[in-house]
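Researcher: For the record, we're logging two predictions in this thread. I'll number them. Prediction 1 follows.
Model: Prediction 1, sequence and structure:
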Amino acid sequence: MALEIVELARTIRERDPARPGWAESMLCYAGLHAVLWHRLSHALWRAGLKGLARFSSHIARFLTGIEIHPGATIGRRLFIDHGMGVVIGETAEIGDDVLIYHSVTLGGLSGQPGKRHPTIEDKVTIGAGAQVLGPIRIGRGARVGANAVVVSAVAPGCTVVGIPARPPRGQEPCQDPSIGYGLGTADEDPVGEQLAAMRAEIALLRAELGTLRASQREGV
C-alpha cells in the first residue's frame, strides 16, 4: 500500500500543472484517496463480502465525492483530477496511467446483468463532464473531450469530441493539450452543429405542416 501511495503521488506531481509537493499530493488529492479506498472495497468484493464492500465504497463517496463501484477493476497510476462527481460502474475496467477529470461517468445503458460498462485501455484521457456509456472499448492513448457523450468504441490514439462523440475535423489525434477542458479546435462546436441541424429540420417540418394544413382547408 505504501508503494502505491508513493506511485500515485508521483503521478500527480508529474501530471498536474500545479506541481504540488509530496505532502500535498498525498494529503490533498481526493482522487488518490478514492483509488486507495477502492483497493479495500474491491478486495472485500472479491472475497465475497459484497455488502461490506458496498458500505466501504459508500463511505469513500461521502469523503471524496467520487463514486467507484467495488466491482470495478482499476489499473495502476489512475489520476482522477479534481474528481468531484466522477462515477465508475460495476463492470468498468480501467487500465494503467489513465487520466480522468471531474464529473465523468463510466456508465451503463442496460439494466441487464453482465458486462455493461466501458473498458478503458492504458494512457487514456477523459475530459471533464464526459459520459462514456455501455460495454464499449476506449483504445490505448485515446482522448475523450470535455462533455462528450461516447456510446461507440474509440480507436487507439484517437481523439473524440461532441455529442455524439466523433473525431474533430482537421485535427491530428491527441494534439490538443486542453482536451480535459475544451472541445478540440477553437472554431469547432459539435453541439452547436447538432442544434443548428435540429433547427433546420424543425423549420422544414413546420413548412410541410403549413402546406398540409393549407391543402386541407382548400379541400374543405
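Researcher: Logged. Prediction 2.
Model: Prediction 2, sequence and structure:
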Amino acid sequence: MKNIDKVRKELQQTGKYMMEYGIAWGNSGNISARTSEDRYLITASGTFLGELDDADLIECDLAGNSYGTEGRKASKETPMHRAVYEQRPEINAVLHASPFYSTLVAASKIDIPTNWFIETMYYLEKVERVPYFHPGSEELGEGVRAKAKSANILLLENHGVLVYDTSIREARMALQTLEMACKMLVVSQSAGIEMTGLPHETEREFIEGAAYKPRRNWNF
C-alpha cells in the first residue's frame, strides 16, 4: 500500500498546477490516484482543484464504496476513474479536465498529430475518442471502459479529456503536452501555417529505439 498522505499531497500539488497553467478552470475537472491495488483517492464533488484540502480527497475502492467521507461525496465522474483502474492495473493516476484547446478539438473531428515534436511522439502515441454521454453517467463510465486499453489519452467528445498514466507526474506531463499540441494545431490552422510533421518511419524509430524515454508497453 502506498503512503496515502504522500498521494494526497501529490494530488493537491497537481490540482494547483493544473489551475496555474490553465489546464483546469472553475470547479471543472476531477483527479485521482491509486493508493493500493483496489483503492484510490479522488476529488470530492464540487471541489476547486487549485485549493484542495485533505477533506476534498475521498478514498474509494473498485467496488464503489467510499471511506471517511464525513458527508462529502466523491466526484460524480467516479465511474470513469474506476473503469480505468479496473482495466489498467498498471495505471496509478487519472486526470479529467476541460482545457480550452483540447476541449475544442474534442468537440470537433480534428485529428491530433503525433509526429510534430518529441513529446507528442511519446505522450500522444495513442489517442482515442469516446462518444458523448452525460457527465457522471454509468454510460460514460462504460464508454471509457471500452477504450481504456487502447490509449492513455481519451478525448471525451463535447466534454473534455481523460488522461491516465503510471504516475501522477507522467499523467500531468501528458495532459500538458496534449493541450500544447492542440493549441499549436488550432493556432497554426487559424494562421494558415502548414505544419510539417516528421515522417512516420522516423516517428516509429523514435518510439522504438530512442533513449529519451523507455518504450511504452501496449501489450495488455
